[in-house]
Amino acid sequence: MAQTMLEGSAISAFCGGIAVMMSAGIQTDEAVYMLADEHEDSNFKSICHEVYLQLAEGVCLSEAMGSTGAFPEYAIAMVRAGEEAGRVEQVLRRLDVYYEEEERTYAKLRSSVSYPAALLAIMSIILAFAVAFILPVFIDVYDNLTGTLTAGSFSSMNVSIIIGWVALIITLISTISIIALTILSRSESGRLRMVSIFEKLPFTRDAMYQLALSRFTAALSTYVSSGLNTETAMHESIGFVTNPKLRAKVEAAYKTMIDPKNPRSLAQAVAENDVFEPLYARMLSVGHETGSSDEMLSRLSQIFFDDALERIDKIIDRIEPLFAAFLTITVGATLIAVMLPLIGIMRSIG
Question: Are residues 192 and 275 in the same domain?
Answer without folding.
Answer: yes
